[in-house]
Amino acid sequence: MYKNMHIVAHRGAEDLHLENTMTAFQAAAPADAFELDIHATADNQVIVIHDRTAARVAAPDSLHRDTPVARLSAAQIKEITLIDGSPVPTLEEVLLQTSLPIQVEIKSAGAVPAAAALLQKYPEHLERLLFISFIDAALVEIVDRLPEARVGILRDASMDDLRILDYIPLKNVGAILPSWKALNVASIADLHTKGIKVGCWTIRDENAFGIAQQAGVDYATVSDPSRFLAPSPAGELHW
Hints:
Oligomer: single chain
CATH class: Alpha Beta
Protein name: Glycerophosphoryl diester phosphodiesterase
GO molecular function: glycerophosphodiester phosphodiesterase activity
CATH architecture: Alpha-Beta Barrel
Pfam families: GDPD (PF03009)
CATH topology: TIM Barrel
EC number: 3.1.4.46
GO biological process, one term: lipid metabolic process
């Protein structure tokens, strides 16, 4: 039986535009939300990029393309030119130039203090965000620093190891987020009885999309929000 679920655009509309760019985020609709990745610079600013360097997404002749972003200042990051000619965005820019809810994936634990400081500057944006990570310690720390933050617990091959739930108040747990390949209907039902939502990542074909719908997830992260659509639950998305 298919279930209505919210659609999240992975790294923006990554199949349509270069991932983690302002263009991709602004093209995320008709998704209900979009996902992005963050690292911190050497001067403690939050930038939006997936890898530890810009090499995969930067223009071949770009400055700093092979240097770890943690060793670069925010000013040096802005000297990087991406493949599509755009600059690397900051999380601050994304918050101020978009309106959809956002899943913010913490790619390195060092990004937590910078992200917390940014949201202390813009507390009105906190309810838009679901901080997600494979790094359990980063999720515990973001809740310690931002007691009203909501977090999503990323898992890859299994939904079984959820010991982190002993360290984060239930009110802060927005979702468990396994790979679609690891979805387990019994585990999803059990989490739902505890009031915990379940999402999955990353849908790139119709088979995976159907599995997510049949499993009864609340959120499905997709590579192309214009291709993978489902009726959304009534009302606005609130993490």
